[in-house]
Hints:
Layout: H1 7-13, E1 42-48, H2 54-67, E2 71-77, H3 86-92, E3 99-102, H4 104-108, E4 131-132, E5 138-153, H5 154-161, H6 173-185, H7 198-204, H8 217-224, H9 234-246, H10 263-272, E6 277-281, H11 285-288, E7 296-299, E8 315-325, H12 331-346, H13 348-357, H14 374-384, E9 388-390, H15 398-413, H16 419-432
Parallel strand pairs: 1-2, 8-9
Antiparallel strand pairs: 3-8, 4-5, 5-6, 5-7, 5-8
Amino acid sequence: xxxxxxxxxxxxxxxxxxxxxxxxxxxxxxxxxxxxxxxxxxxxxxxxxxxxxxxxxxxxxxxxxxxxxxxxxxxxxxxxxxxxxxxxxxxxxxxxxxxxxxxxxxxxxxxxxxxxxxxxxxxxxxxxxxxxxxxxxxxxxxxxxxxxxxxxxxxxxxxxxxxxxxxxxxxxxxxxxxxxxxxxxxxxxxxxxxxxxxxxxxxxxxxxxxxxxxxxxxxxxxxxxxxxxxxxxxxxxxxxxxxxxxxxxxxxxxxxxxxxxxxxxxxxxxxxxxxxxxxxxxxxxxxxxxxxxxxxxxxxxxxxxxxxxxxxxxxxxxxxxxxxxxxxxxxxxxxxxxxxxxxxxxxxxxxxxxxxxxxxxxxxxxxxxxxxxxxxxxxxxxxxxxxxxxxxxxxxxxxxxxxxxxxxxxxxxxxxxxxxxxxxxxxxxxxxxxx
Length: 435
C-alpha cells in the first residue's frame, strides 16, 4: 500500500515511488473533450488517498476542468501520515464524496457497500487489474500498481557476481545464500539490511505464503475455517526459513539486535552500497534515491530449493489504490466521475498526470508513458515478462497484520517465541476474525 516507516504511513503514502507502464498498444489520443452545452453544471468531490501527490492531483483536476468546464472537481487529499481516510472525515461532516480512493482490502470490506458497479466501463478492456468482488463485479478502478520483493543495489551485486546481475537467477534459497556469500567476499561485510518494523515483517513479508494458491483467498478461507495447520505447510515454513537467512547474524547488518526501527538506516546502507539487499516495495525508492544515484531492482523472495517453483520466480504486484464511485452521489455526479476516470485512461493529459507527473505505475496497457524510477521499471519489466503474482497484502487487513500479527513475527525474529507459537497466533487470529 506510500513511502513509509510504518504501516500507516504506507497505507496513506503507498508508493511515491513510481513506474513504467507497459503496453502492447499504441498510445491513445485525447478522449472526447468538452461536455455538451446542454449539460447542467455539476460539482464533484474526489478524495485522494496518496497525500504525496496532492499538488499533482489538484493540477490534474484543473486540466480536466479545462476540457469539461461544466464539471467542477474538488480534490481532497489525505494528509501524509494521517491514519483516518479523508473519505470518513468528509462523510462525517455531512458531505457526499462522489469518488473515493481506497486500498483494495478496505474497498472489499469496510467500504464494501459504498461503490457502484463499474463492470460496463470502457477502461476494463485495457487493464487486468480492475478490482472485482466475489461475484466478479468490478467495484474499483485501479489507480496505482505497486510491487514488493528483495530490493537490491545493482552496482554492488554486479561487482559481487563479476558481471551484470540477473535478479531472476536467484530462484532458490541455496542460490540466495551463495549470492550473499559472494557479496561478503566482494568486501561487503553485511549484505542484508533487514528492517523489522511490524508492517514490513507482518502484513508484507508474512502474507507472501497466501500466493501458494492462485487465489490468495483460498488460504484465508482455510485459516478462517480452522482447517490449515501452518506448522505443516511447506510454503509458510519456507518463507520463514528465508527470513531466518535474511535476519541472521552472518548476513544482516542488524543481526546482533534484529529488532528496532531500522527503516532509515537500512535504506541509507543499501543506497550507499554499504549493504546490498533489503525487503521492501517500490515506495522504498524515495529513501534510496536520497542517498545515491545508483540503480536498484527487485528479485523474488525464494521459498525453497525448487527452481521451477513459480513462487521463486515472481514478485508480488498489484493495485494498491483503487477509485470507487459513491452510490450515494447523484446520477449526474456519478457520470461526471466516470468521465474523469476515462480521462485518466484515454486522454494524454490524464496519462501524463498518472505516470510522468505522479510517478505512479499505470494499470492500463494503453498508457505508454515511461517513468524514471528504477524500482518501477523493474516492476514493469516483471509485468511484461509475466513474472508477477498477486500483491498479497491486498487480501488481508493491513492494520491488524501490522498491530497484531507483526508483533508476533517480531517475537519470532527476536527468538522470544517459536515458529509453532507464531503459527498458533496466526491461526487463532483468523478463527476469531471472520471478516
